[in-house]
Amino acid sequence: MRLSQLLVGETGIVKEFTDLEMSVKLMEMGCLPGESITVSRIAPLGDPIAIHVSGYQLSLRKREASTIILK
Amino acid sequence: MKADIKVALVGNPNTGKSTLFNILTGLNQKIGNFPGVTVDKKTGFCELPDGRYAQIIDLPGTYSLYPKSRDESIVFSVLADQANPLRPDLVVVILDASNLKRNLLLYTQVADLKIPVIIALNMMDLAKKADITIDVNAFAEKLGVPVVPISARRIEGINKLKEAITYANKVALQEDTIDVEAIAPQLIGQISKEMQLVNPYYALQLAHQHETINFLTPSESDRIEELELEFDFHSQKAQASETIARYNFINELLYDTVKKLETAQDETMSNKIDKVLTHKTFGFIIFFGILIFIFQSIFAWSAYPMKLIADLFVWVQSSLHTLLPAGPLTNLVVDGVIAGLSGVMVFIPQIAILFGFISILEDTGYMSRVTFMMDRIMRKVGLNGKSVVPLIGGFACAVPSIMSTRNIENWKDRMITIMVTPLVTCSARLPVYTLLIALVVPNRNVWWLFNMQGLALTGMYLFSLISAVTVAFVMKYILKARERGYFIMELPVYRMPRWKNVGYSMYDRAKAFVLQAGKVIIAVSVILWVLASYGPGDRFEKIEQKYHQPQYPQHLNTDELHRAIASEKLENSYAGVLGHVIEPIIKPIGFDWKIGIALITSFAAREVFVGTMATIYSVNGDAEKMESVQQKMHDAKNPQTSEPVFTVAVAFSLMMFYAFAMQCASTVAVVYRETKDWRWPASQFAYMTVLAYLASFITYHLLR
């Protein structure tokens, strides 16, 4: 399951990443393996999405979210 | 003022860093540029409790020492480069107490560089509200640094922070956070040995960043590259394992020192606001409502102060003319330099108003929601969600709008926004359009409701937006990206704007514009003034002599005589000569040499077109007298063919020319200031002029 497949309100736990370069940036922003992520909302036009992770809100594009594999 | 100690402020974005900077330095601050990048370098002085002065350096907000953009790389350069004149003696790391985990990543990186450091724990009020309890003493003890709880917003704990700065250690005493050497033991060892470095983390950072930082010699950088190959160093893998190690350290630290009860209050509040502000329909309605409001304000509110400034300069000019002895030097100072200065000052109200609004939008957290909502559409045409504000602001004036593109982090998006913003119909084009439309479009209603002149004007506005988007779309494929386009962006919780920050931002921007772009504008204005008021050889004297012959004063009254002289002088000035020179070039698009003169003089500002036309057709150039200019232009006949000069084809061709051409010295100056490279304004000028010529050519030949 990828983060981009979650619906609004659903939660998942980060397992791994498919893109090394992206993963470095995502981890700096608190999206670490083992961390729980909740999708808070999706932008009115369907992309990007807003997620709740390690105590704050982060927005990222669907393409970027698809590099995060959830448990 | 001489600094006794240099202090750098470092922290994540949205941690209240600039608020703290403003509190510490007051109006005692200076804005410059870091060399090579377009980040404002903000420095200021702060008096410490023991009477010494600290120079405070506000570094750009960043989440990590590994930069996502070229602008962020400045943080590492300032902190690490021994030769950098700004290298601080002490770093104050500002942490958002309500979001410690992510904030601490940057702290651990800075701490491992082994520069003396203290922590300002900001937003303690918000943390308390969110039921987060922090054991500050245990926290400080575990890290081995002084920790000062503050609330910059409420100005609490500032004196304690100043004391901590005063009595800070001169050597770094903080505890190590992670085992840096374990990440790449051989490489770190070898770099440290060859470059004689004592700090392993500095050596590791050099390994990661040696290609982008500017303080290494090429041979040093090449040697590091060689070593990386030798020891099989993979930069991204190393960064990943470093980040994981740091978060392990942080989790352990927070487990012992911070207690948090679930469900933060502020955030649910923020969520409720977001449900409305990023709603499918209301979200866009509210956003466009805000945009229209901003646009109206720049237009309407700035009109009065702008007129005041213009009138003030007119008064100064006329009084100086009477006070100073008449002569070329007085003319140069009064009509060249002071007129140019007036051209600079007149932008201040628009800049201040736009930046007031932008600062409110940023401060409340709304700007990142705009980006969130608009990203998908704007990305398609090569722009960024944040490009919306400069583009709409461009309807008022391109100058403040281009300055506002600094909010766009991505280099390519920002450049494209800068390149297309001047295409949007700005307020200076309005007098040109209204004059020309009134000249050739009948003032009639079609379908009962729509006035044809109004429709033509609306058409010009829509057309400008379409052309800006189209050009952006083309540039998306021409321009090479410097960095990979990320859209990993924090959505900060909504907060009330800090009015003081809004005020500072308005003041800062206006000052930066006057000091940096102002020089170019004044220079161009002086050159244009010389071109328009001097002519080759003795032509001007001959004109004076001609009009002093007795038959002229008899037939004309004084005003008419002056206007006739002015008109003939302009024809014979260097600008007039140039107008004749370019006539063969502009003939295919329907312009004669008189329009050529107006094209040259209106490079100072588009609205000068109307004034120049008034002088050429020797009528009084007041705005109220627009009708008389119109009448003269309407009656103007081509001397050879005796057909009217301003036909529908010529008027629309001229409007197309003004729609596309970069007829604005101030914009050129401000693009240079924002890009720090003359090639940008030059290529922008070139592409816009080429488009203008083509559009005019097509329009002229279609309508003829």
Describe this structure in words.
The complex is a heterodimer of chains A (71) and B (704). By secondary structure, chain A is α+β, with helices and mostly antiparallel strands. Helices cover 18% and strands 38% of the residues of chain A. Chain A is globular, with a radius of gyration of 11 Å. The model of chain A has no long low-confidence stretch (mean pLDDT 92). Chain B has 704 residues and is of the alpha/beta class. Among the domains of chain B are: 5-166, Rossmann fold (3-Layer(aba) Sandwich), CATH 3.40.50; 180-260, no CATH class; 525-703, no CATH class. In chain B, 61% of the residues lie in helices and 8% in strands. In chain B, strand 10 (445-446) and strand 11 form a beta hairpin. The interface between A and B is large, with 31 and 43 residues. Strand 4 of chain A pairs antiparallel with strand 12 (489-490) of chain B, so a sheet runs across the interface.
Give a nutshell description of this structure.
Chain A is α+β, with helices and mostly antiparallel strands and 71 residues long. Chain A contains two helices and five strands.
